[in-house]
Design brief:
elongated; 420 residues; alpha+beta; binds 2-oxoglutaric acid; Jelly Rolls; 42% helix; 2 domains; 13 strands; binds fe (ii) ion; 13-stranded antiparallel sheet
């Protein structure tokens, strides 16, 4: 087992082959499931519409709908569930079922409802289903009471059958490895927020704009303009906290660093350019940041500059890593400055809060990523929306947890969020 590059490449090629085959197979499986489920759903909608139209809740208005319903419960669902639990292919199951029952069972795949031939087929099929349920065909008896009894028995059978089907499906859903919640949370609200389709919750109308001095003498003279953006997890917007002159200064520094040529970031979750400025490169700004956050700037990272071009974006993420061995270095809070406005797209969105923040040149957003027990606050999940026009540039300042113990002491189960 000597190590050679070609040996290594060969095992990688194998891996690719196996995984591709696996994915193709899964894809076929799902396509078949979707196709078959659509057939069931169409039949279901057909019958449901007829119930609405005729306002009859107890009986199905004609023999066709009756047939469809029996067939769905007694045959279609059974096939589908067998398919889910065995991974066999549906065509085989249908073929087997046709063989077991009657060719005509699948007539509805090919016939229109007002077809004369169909009517005859339906009569035939209803018989078949009654046969399949081991009941005497209704047409064979003159006894009305007997017909009623038979129908009741069939109904009861169907209810039991549906109950069993539900159990099997639920078990299947529980057993599959897909973490539905994770993928849903990930995308939930992102696109709608970015398109500006979700408006802020009306119940948040206690939010205020205020001058904020935080008991700091300096701020008595020149208070901060603070806008509360969210009541649950406090997200604050500070207006006019980054001056045009400072923005120009930063852009000069970036040019010297060749920011616009190099340092592109292109991953599956982020398309932007990123570089860093030493946090002491902007001393006055650093002092302002301390006033805005009330946190010890000695544990702040250097300033991360992010630049997005058209279609640039950053998918939902937490700013902090959660490795246990690096607990003191978790990013307690984020201060995000906007160096530009955006004309279209490019909002910063908090997908769990259903909150969109539209960038305004010179303003900054501030929020906590950790709860008072220093674990991650899932409400802080956020993203940078795709940009449609122009360029968007931001400054990220992450303030880490260490050195904040006296300002923001760890409080298990005390409050659900940090406040100033
Ligand atoms: O660009 C934005 O609006 C958000 C940026 C962000 O979340 C980040 O860089 O961590
Ligand atoms: Fe972020």
């Amino acid at each position: 087992n000597k190590f050679t590059v070609s040996n290594y490449l060969r095992s990688e090629a194998n891996l690719l082959k196996v995984l591709n085959a696996y994915i193709n197979e899964r894809e076929l499986y799902l396509t078949e499931a979707v196709r078959y489920l659509n057939v069931i759903e169409r039949s279901y909608n057909n019958v449901k519409d007829s119930i609405y139209k005729t306002c009859s809740n107890n009986s199905l208005s004609n023999v066709w709908y009756e047939y469809l319903t029996y067939k769905r419960v007694l045959v279609d669902w059974t096939i589908f569930v067998r398919f889910l639990s065995n991974d066999t292919n549906i065509s085989d199951l249908i073929a087997k079922s046709i063989y077991d029952n009657n060719r005509g069972m699948y007539a509805d795949f090919i016939m229109e409802q007002n077809d004369l031939k169909l009517l005859r087929a339906v009569q035939q099929l209803t018989k078949t289903i009654h046969n399949a349920t081991k009941e005497k065909p209704i047409a064979d008896t003159q006894n009305k009471q007997h017909i009623k009894d038979t129908q009741l028995q069939i109904k009861q059978k169907m209810i039991l059958k549906l109950k069993k089907l539900k159990e099997t499906v639920n078990k299947f859903l529980k057993d599959t490895k897909v973490n539905k919640n994770a993928s849903l949370t990930y995308w939930a609200n992102y696109k709608e927020l970015c398109r500006g389709e979700i408006m802020q919750n009306q119940s948040d109308n206690n939010l205020k704009c205020r001058y904020f001095h935080n008991n700091k003498p300096y701020l008595y003279i020149g208070p901060l303009k603070l806008e509360e953006l969210h009541a649950g997890l406090p997200v604050y917007m500070y207006h006019d906290v980054l001056y045009d002159k400072e923005i120009e200064e930063i852009q000069e520094l970036l040019k010297k660093q060749n920011m616009y040529i190099s340092q592109g970031t292109e991953t599956i979750y982020r398309v932007s350019k990123v570089t860093w400025l030493h946090r002491k490169a902007m001393l006055k700004l650093q002092r302002r940041m301390e006033l805005m956050t009330n946190l010890d700037m000695e544990s702040a990272e250097n300033i991360q500059v992010g630049i997005y071009g058209i279609a640039g974006h950053y998918l939902p993420h937490y700013d902090t890593g959660l490795a246990k061995n690096a607990a003191p270095y978790r990013r307690l809070a984020t201060l995000l400055f906007y160096m530009s406005d955006t004309k279209k797209g490019g909002a910063t969105v908090f997908t769990n809060l259903k909150l969109a923040v539209w960038p305004k040149k010179g303003s900054a957003v501030f929020w906590y990523n950790l709860k008072p027990d220093y674990e991650v606050d899932t409400r802080s999940l956020h993203a940078g929306c795709p940009l449609y026009v122009g360029t968007k540039s931001v400054l990220n300042i992450w303030i880490r947890r260490y050195r904040q113990e006296f300002r923001k002491p760890c409080m298990r189960d005390q409050r659900d969020t940090f406040i100033f």
